[in-house]
Design goal:
The complex is a heterodimer of chains A (180) and B (159). With 180 residues, chain A is of the alpha+beta class. Chain A has a single domain, classed as Muramoyl-pentapeptide Carboxypeptidase, domain 2 (2-Layer Sandwich). Chain A is built from five helices and four strands. The longest helix of chain A is centred in the N-terminal third of the chain and has 27 residues. The N and C termini of chain A lie far apart (48 Å). In chain A, 38% of the residues are buried. In chain B, 49% of the residues lie in helices and 14% in strands. In chain B, strands 1-2-4-3 form a four-stranded antiparallel sheet, with helices on one face. The N and C termini of chain B lie far apart (40 Å). The chains are: A alpha+beta (180), B alpha+beta (159). At the A-B interface, helix 1, helix 2 and helix 3 of A face helix 1, helix 2 and helix 3 of B.
């Protein structure tokens, strides 16, 4: 029996490209609508937030991850399960502080920017992939975790890597989690 | 497929945001938003068209191109084929999808019928863009009688 058409490698690529290309068209449209980079960044973050609040259900249904007991576990899951599942990459995770609530995801390759060689002229402060920050923030909020998520470094801006910083804002109430 | 989910979520958010962005309730305002979505779909369709496997680019006739859209493109983008293709053999084609993935989550039947066009604009542009890369100029419109079924009408523009 032949493989279903959509499993053929060339179509898989088209499907992957569809999201990346659509995202590119969206960013281009927002750049037309907004003069200031900060406004585009904010808009992307807001849209990402909206997506994240819905994506989390999809993620939990597909991945069936169990309750986490530390922020570090959560950061690992975001990098190793969620990013892998949706974007096909596995960022590395580093913890940035002693209280273990600040983490960085280091992206060697950024699929969203696959077809982008450099930022458009006059758009040097554009956080091209800011949608990702909003998605992570929205998804975390739906599981009752408040976090600040921003791009700390961006290859498109000339940095050597692309780095997303996640700062968990409230202390995880361990007692609450153990009681089940 | 998780990739497909991401596109669907992005598309839904785009429809919601681009609408809120232009709150002009008059028909003029609505048209603007629909054409923005269609324009984005067109750009993506053009780019997708350029990424299609080489063999597919040597079509013998117009009908072959449309059949390709109904089968290969639809499968690559929506994981299913178009359910029926009709033509008057004079440049007009109607592609019917009985269960269009971007409408399926919304509702069944007549509820949200008014909202449905917003969810079709991008795909109309996508079709028009892919056709454009394949050398065919067209006008694409969509209509919904009852969710989640819809029809895409492609009218080939002769030079």
């Amino acid at each position: 029996m032949s493989r279903p058409a959509y499993r053929r490698p060339e179509y898989h690529k088209i499907n992957k490209d569809l999201f990346v290309l659509t995202y590119g068209a969206l960013v281009a449209q927002l750049c037309k609508d907004y003069e200031k980079d900060e406004d585009v960044n904010k808009y992307l973050d807001t849209m990402g937030y909206g997506i994240g609040t819905r994506l989390i259900e999809d993620f939990l249904a597909r991945s069936r991850v169990r309750r986490c007991h530390s922020y570090s576990e959560i950061a690992d899951i975001i990098a190793q399960v969620a990013f892998k599942m949706y974007l096909g990459i596995t960022p590395s995770v580093t913890c940035n502080n002693a209280s273990r609530n600040e983490f960085s995801l280091i992206l060697d390759k950024n699929p969203l920017a696959e077809f982008v060689e450099e930022l458009p002229a006059g758009r040097s402060s554009l956080c091209y992939s800011n949608l990702l920050c909003g998605i992570i923030r929205g998804a975390l909020e739906m599981v009752h975790l408040a976090a600040d998520v921003t791009f700390l470094q961006d290859r498109l801006k000339g940095d050597s890597v692309t780095e997303i910083g996640i700062t968990f804002l409230k202390k995880l109430d361990e007692k609450k989690y153990r009681r089940k | 497929m998780a990739d497909a989910a991401l596109f669907e979520f992005l598309h839904t958010e785009m429809v919601a945001e681009l609408w809120a962005h232009d709150p002009d309730p008059s028909p003029g305002g609505q048209k603007m938003s629909l054409s923005v979505l269609e324009g984005m779909g067109f750009r993506v369709g053009q780019a997708l068209g350029e990424r299609l496997p080489r063999e597919t680019l040597a079509f013998r006739e117009e009908l072959d191109v449309l059949k390709f859209l109904c089968k290969d493109l639809w499968v690559a983008v929506f994981q299913k084929q178009i359910d029926s293709l009709r033509t008057n053999h004079q440049g007009t084609y109607v592609l019917q999808d009985n269960s269009f993935p971007l409408l399926v989550r919304m509702a069944s039947g007549l509820q949200y019928l008014e909202e449905a066009p917003k969810f079709l604009a991008f795909t109309c542009g996508l079709l028009r863009g892919t056709l454009s890369t394949l050398g065919i100029k067209s006008l694409v419109t969509a209509s919904v009688a009852a969710l989640p079924a819809c029809k895409f009408q492609v009218v080939i523009q002769k030079a």
